[in-house]
Structure to design on (406 residues):
């Protein structure tokens, strides 16, 4: 079960307040009128508080001693006043199973001695991911008698990716595949126009060529399938307070197709920054300091082999969201081992992935894979005679609009 870590609580308080204080316009506005609502810094701070405060308050940890952060906690509430809409998270587990572990309580005692200027914590987590079998090759089976929701949440919390086998009913998926196949053939023949209203915010397009041999079909309303979009287990995962929360929104629903001969794609994030670019520089917040803000869910319409070119992931890169690549080189570090790991990632920024971080899950028909928007990934080259098709649906916190479709 993911926990409210000792780092999450202080970052909730420090990042929100420092965002306001470090933003000159917000600080001046607050000093002069008591109202910072028009500043970007204000909105960024609200976003952090609205995301993390329900998590903290849902945990028994928030009822404990916050030490030097107690006053900052009060200030955060005072800053936002009645304008802040914070809903306490709903817990499916008893409170006594949530708070701090013994190890975390010991770490908390020394928290004020930690120097947040260093990048060691980010690369320490990356190191752990690259040496964690669950992150690098793990598969959970939804049909196994040992399958537990807590395992899904735990794996996603540390890896920002989880592969679940036998997730969707295959008969439902087969029917949906037939509908998509008919629709794509209709577009190819000209029977169906390439201009129409999509499932994403009513926009007037749905079919686009991403690059040669690759196509993106954003589903029209008549192709929307609630058994896939609003699957009960999927909703239980995504609406958990450690993932996206009960008020999450669905962003889009479609299928990405790669024809035979499609080349390898480029490494990219769907969206790299949680609050603002270079958040580490502004408020020492980055990577997994904050919980997810958007999640992509993909499922194949065939059993994917290496010849099909599975989606490739650069594990651990979600830990670097909010740290500019140029800035990363100059952030001080203490551990020489972690410095070497940082150098490996610096040499590959947006061009390649260090070999130990590479993962290419082979998804079977009926599987799903959930991954974070900040995780670098790319499509593999399709060297098979088959059309490689992946259904995607994406979900996010209420304030987020996907720039890929805006």
């Amino acid at each position: 079960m993911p926990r409210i870590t000792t780092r999450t609580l202080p970052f909730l308080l420090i990042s929100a307040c420092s965002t306001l204080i470090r933003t000159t316009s917000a600080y001046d506005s607050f000093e002069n009128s008591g109202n910072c609502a028009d500043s970007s810094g204000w909105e960024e701070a609200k976003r952090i508080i609205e995301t993390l405060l329900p998590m903290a308050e849902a945990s028994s940890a928030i009822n404990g001693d916050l030490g030097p952060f107690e006053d900052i906690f009060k200030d955060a509430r005072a800053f936002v006043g009645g304008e802040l809409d914070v809903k306490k998270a709903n817990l499916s587990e008893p409170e006594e199973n949530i708070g701090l572990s013994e190890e975390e309580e010991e770490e908390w005692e020394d928290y004020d001695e930690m120097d947040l200027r260093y990048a060691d914590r980010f690369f320490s987590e990356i190191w752990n991911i690259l040496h964690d079998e669950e992150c690098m090759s793990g598969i959970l089976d939804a049909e196994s008698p040992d399958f537990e929701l807590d395992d899904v949440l735990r794996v996603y919390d540390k890896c920002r990716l989880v592969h679940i086998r036998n997730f969707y009913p295959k008969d439902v998926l087969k029917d949906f595949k037939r509908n998509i196949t008919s629709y794509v053939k209709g577009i190819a023949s000209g029977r169906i126009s390439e201009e129409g209203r999509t499932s994403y915010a009513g926009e007037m397009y749905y079919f686009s060529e991403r690059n040669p041999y690759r196509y993106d079909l954003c589903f029209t309303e008549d192709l929307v399938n609630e058994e896939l979009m609003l699957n009960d287990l999927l909703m239980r995962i995504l609406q958990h307070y450690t993932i996206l929360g009960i008020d999450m929104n669905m962003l889009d629903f479609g299928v990405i197709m790669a024809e035979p001969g499609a080349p390898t794609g480029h490494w990219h994030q769907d969206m790299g920054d949680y609050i603002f670019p270079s958040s580490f520089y502004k408020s020492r917040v980055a990577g997994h300091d904050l919980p997810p803000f958007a999640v992509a869910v993909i499922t194949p319409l065939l059993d994917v082999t290496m010849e099909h070119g599975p989606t490739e992931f650069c594990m651990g890169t979600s830990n670097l969201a909010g740290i500019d690549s140029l800035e990363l080189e100059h952030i001080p570090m203490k551990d020489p081992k972690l410095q070497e790991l940082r150098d490996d990632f610096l040499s590959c920024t947006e061009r390649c992935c260090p070999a130990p971080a590479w993962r290419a899950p082979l998804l079977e028909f009926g599987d799903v894979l959930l991954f974070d928007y900040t995780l670098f990934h790319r499509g593999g080259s399709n060297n098979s005679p088959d059309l490689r098709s992946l259904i995607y649906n994406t979900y996010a916190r209420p304030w987020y609009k996907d720039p890929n479709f805006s």
In short: Residues 170-189 form the longest helix (20 residues).
